[in-house]
Amino acid sequence: MAGTLLDIRDLSVRFFTYQGVVKALEKVGLAVSKGEILGLVGETGCGKSVLARSILRLIADPPGRITGGEIFFKGEDILKTSHRRIRQIRGNEISMIFQEPMSSLNPVFRVGHQMQEVVMLHQRVDGAGARKVCIDMLQQVKMPDPEEVLSKYPHELSGGMRQRVMIAMELSCRPDLLIADEPTTALDVTVQAQVLTILDDLTRKRGVSVLFISHDLGVIAQICDRVAVMYAGRIVEIAPVGELFSEPRHPYTRGLLRAIPRVNEGRETLSVIAGTVPGLIDPPGGCRFHPRCEEVMAPCGRDVPETVKVTPDHEVACHLYDGDN
Amino acid sequence: MFENFRKEHAWQIREFLFTLRLLSRNPSAVGGFAIIAAMVLIAFTAPYIAPYDPIRISLSERLSAPSAVHLFGTDEMGRDILSRVMHGARISLWIGVLVIVIAGGLGALIGAVAGYLGRQADNIIMRIMDVILSFPPLVLAMALAAALGPNLNNAIVAVAFVMIPKFARMVRGEALAVKEKQFIAAARASGAGNMWIILHHILPNCFSSVIILATLILGETILIAASLSFIGLGAQPPSPEWGAMISVGRKFLMDQWWYPTFPGLFILVTVIGFNILGDALRDIFDPRIRR
């Protein structure tokens, strides 16, 4: 690991709605090293996408607001820089791929037009030069017949093709960090595998760091170096991918892993975590997972657990490990 | 070359032919289109097909009734009314197109800015638009044209001004829907600024509805412009503008009925033509009732 690229410290984001204040992120800390692929897993609504959008300051304000914390990117606090600077960072240094490839492209323009636009916005090339960059990038994402694709409208491409166009488009700007917000969720499994392989290959080859958001542990296992597990707006566990799967520490992580059906076990019912995800307007006090936790203890409902290192690379926020026991 | 174009645009060509077929099956659309096509043809060819010079004065023939020589009769200066009405089509259609281009362009931009920026900007812009809309369009256009001074260009500016809110309001609504789409978020994530997004992403997605609204409004525009000329705030005599001709001709209605009647008929037919074409287009392009 050649140093830290992105360092998020104590980030809190709230949404002020008519129903109340949604505490979407609560003191989230996370670091991405250069060239690393960091996975971020969690259930729907736990704040993964909010975290991703906060990094680019794309939270709609109102209703959302970043209420605390710092995001250091290459040593610069993103939350304090000017609008001008953040626009330079967007696309040039940090790019983002969204969940639904179906709606990430403008339906009224040809793919080529849109790709060239982005390339020309970020690099000093003319139209013909931009076209060359586009064709080159499309070839790198294994797109058959890139010339043809450039002259098509988004609705003429399949979901997988569109997502590959998005990957090509975002990587053409040579960012240092790519935020992939569930890039394969809307795709079927075979296409998903192709897109993952392309993403993995290209980012490793170019030394691009990736923050890979997903709710699919299988996908995470396939592509990531380290994994952060999120629950109800907090990071509960961060570990290298192998360690997380072999030795999960947090009861929530264990529950998640147990909930994956195994092909070789002939079980009829799936193992589930009891209860439902808490609403973030009025989340449980102390550890937010304690009402559903199998190993709940006295301090869980009272104190917010500190993040502790169980091994040098393995952090977990749970009272089971904070030394009192 | 042509083969390539056909292959590349196969989908659009199919869609275009489908739209044409829908149009041709819709009798009112065909009727409206025929009227407008005839008017446009007259406007373009007036200098060649009009039997006389529209401002040629021939006092010996003044106020003569429709006959084989002067199909629509002549006015008090002996000018041929048919020729004048034909040249009038040039003026009226030109006014209509110019007003729609100005009002449509500015209105769409204002609406897109309001809808995309939202919040205070939206509130302020749309309240101003509401104020303009609260006046009857003709009255406001009259006041403006009178304030600017009575000539054709000022009349165009005045009519365009009162038409801006119609476009602004519609485009704002569309912009509100478009701005939630993911490609807007994606554009922002790749560093696009507000103005870039409005011009490159919001406006192009509103284009088709602007076209339809423009067709619907064209009739009204021509009517208001003619009304302004009628009360002397638009085109000035001897310009063969229809409204101006009726204005002068109304004194002769009792004895020389043909003088104000033919320009009036042309206004009527043109406005009806645009209205039914606009209605038909709106129906055809509405995906819910498109079949």
Describe the overall structure.
- With 325 residues, chain A is of the alpha/beta class.
- Chain A has one domain (4-93, 175-321): P-loop containing nucleotide triphosphate hydrolases (Rossmann fold, 3-Layer(aba) Sandwich), CATH 3.40.50.300.
- Chain A is 31% helix and 25% strand.
- Chain A has helices at residues 48-55, 83-92, 111-122, 127-140, 146-150, 159-171, 189-206, 217-223, 241-246, 251-258; strands spanning 4-17, 20-33, 37-41, 64-73, 76-77, 94-97, 177-181, 209-214, 226-231, 234-240, 307-311, 314-317.
- In chain A, the strands form 2 sheets. In chain A, strands 6-7-8-3-9-10-12-11 form an 8-stranded mixed β-sheet, with helices on both faces. Chain A has a 4-stranded antiparallel β-sheet with strand order 2-1-4-5, covered by helices on one side.
- In chain A, helix 6 (159-171) runs parallel beside helix 7 (189-206).
- Chain A is globular and about 65 Å long.
- With 291 residues, chain B is mostly helical.
- Chain B has one domain: MetI-like fold, CATH 1.10.3720.10.
- Helix content of chain B is 75%, strand content 0%.
- Chain B is built from 11 helices and no strands.
- In chain B, helix 7 runs antiparallel to helix 9.
What is this entry, summarized?
The complex is a heterodimer of chains A (325) and B (291). Helices cover 31% and strands 25% of the residues of chain A. Chain A has helices spanning 48-55, 83-92, 111-122, 127-140, 146-150, 159-171, 189-206, 217-223, 241-246, 251-258; strands at 4-17, 20-33, 37-41, 64-73, 76-77, 94-97, 177-181, 209-214, 226-231, 234-240, 307-311, 314-317.
